[in-house]
Amino acid sequence: MDALSTLFDSTTFKWIILPLLIFSARIIDVTLGTIRIIYISRGLKYLAPIFGFFEVLIWLLAIGQIMQNLTNVVYYIAYATGFATGNFVGIYIEERMAVGTVIIRIITQKDASELIQYLRSEGYGVTSIDATGMTGPVKVIFTTIRRQNLEEIIKHIRRFNPKAFFSVEDVRFAKEGVFPPPKKLGSDTLKGLLKWQRKGK
Q: Per residue in 71-94, is it b (16+ CB within 10 Å) or e — as a string?
């Protein structure tokens, strides 16, 4: 106990260890909060409360240390820096997890038959219409895909129609859509979590 008390009272703990702990706690809780908000905005209601529980728990631990040491400016800096870093980390992780569904709108003047044929051959539902743009006739293509397939689809859009304009929008809810069969998942924990999330929608 004496050694533990000495550690807590040491200058190293107050000026280095504790600020690092506050910084790390803020990164974790803001990361969880960022992911939770994104999940709520997309209607993914099953994991959001779990993220919220741990977010608030970690936040209380961090703010408790701040309140006990109101005169230490280093703690404020660690707290604010952790908050800023947590936002970035949360968005990055959510992008890598790629949970949810998006709709891609493609507008092209070039013949889009190869692109449409490719998408349909891969099992994607495709709706195409003829329209008139600023410079003449265009083809407008709509397809709804899982976010985890977005990079692959964009790569093929650029391959078949390099100058096509396309936009991507999040879809809060989709029903009766046409999607390719999900790929076989390995034993990776994160992939298993995402598989469970999709089943729970």
A: ebeebeebbeebbebbeebbeeeb
Q: Which two tokens stand for residue 96?
A: 């890598």
Amino acid in position 112: A
Q: For the chain, give every domain's residue range.
A: 9-97, 101-200
Spell out where the chain has E strands: 101-108, 126-133, 136-146, 165-171
101-200: CATH topology: Alpha-Beta Plaits (3.30.70)
Residues pairing with 108 in the sheet: 139
pLDDT in tens, 83-141: 999 999 988 887 777 677 888 999 998 888 899 999 998 888 898 999 988 888 999 99
CA–CA dist 36, 53 (Å, integer): 10
Q: What region, left, alpha or beta, does residue 135 occupy, with left being phi > 0 and alpha being psi -120 to 50 degrees?
A: alpha
List CB contacts of 132: < 8 A, sequence separation 6 or more: 138
Residue length, the chain?
Answer: 201
